[in-house]
Amino acid sequence: MILQSKAAVVTGSTSGIGLAIAKALAREGANVMINGLGDPGQIEATRAGIEAEFGVRALYSGADMTRPPEIAAMVAEAEGAFGRLDVLVNNAGIQYVSPVEEFPPEKWDAILAINLSSAFHTIRAAVPGMKARGFGRIVNIASAHSLVASPFKSAYVAAKHGLVGMTKSVALELATHGVTVNCISPGYVWTPLVESQIPDTMKARNMTKEQVIEEVLLKAQPTKEFVTVDQVAAIAVFLCSDAATQMTGANLSVDGGWTAQ
């Protein structure tokens, strides 16, 4: 229970990686605020389930990650409700794929807002309290695309590269305040979002499900295996532990060897 009596905010955490991280933090004793989109009834069931399973307080914020005032209000609400905010995980993200000359400007703006700028706004709001308490753990969920590029993903790649740069800069600012700032960069993670893309890819490429997995999704990952949400969550928990006190400004690849090539 390394996070007993501490409190966390995890953005983009109503499903997938974010939800796995929120549950992993709760398992270690942290009160958690989840955030994201989805069916209200399902979100409430998720929130209540975290409280019931782990014996912590769990709150939900529907803050829109494209709206800075809502982001600031979310952080303030968490601090007010929990009396502190010790862990911030920036996981919210969206994707859009298009040749650059056809890339809709509004999609570019949305991806930069959610995948990069929202992390700036959450960090800006959370840092004063963390500095005052002399403790904080900020974990930014980047991507293998924070280190390498793929075609037709100009906005996503730009945002994830930017997230790593911001992580390093803020880590240096907070190095003497007991606050660490790190990135986790997963490769392809098996989530409902990824799974839902398979039928369309099968149709577009005239492939079987197995071919899509092996020849499209896992082509870049030498292990030929998906990263799991629990593996990413375990690394996030480690970064919050005392063992990681001297880890700051780091970008941890969890990509089956993708970026080793």
TrEMBL record:
Select a single GO molecular function from the record's annotations and give it.
3-hydroxybutyrate dehydrogenase activity
The record's section on PROSITE patterns has:
ADH_SHORT
| SUPFAM superfamilies to which the protein is assigned, alphabetical | NAD(P)-binding Rossmann-fold domains
Q: Name one GO biological process term.
A: monocarboxylic acid metabolic process
InterPro entries found in the cross-reference section: 3-OHbutyrate_DH, NAD(P)-bd_dom_sf, Sc_DH/Rdtase_CS, SDR, SDR_fam
Similarity remark: Belongs to the short-chain dehydrogenases/reductases (SDR) family.
What name has this protein been given in UniProt? 3-hydroxybutyrate dehydrogenase
Q: From the UniProt record, report the name of the gene that encodes this protein.
A: bdhA
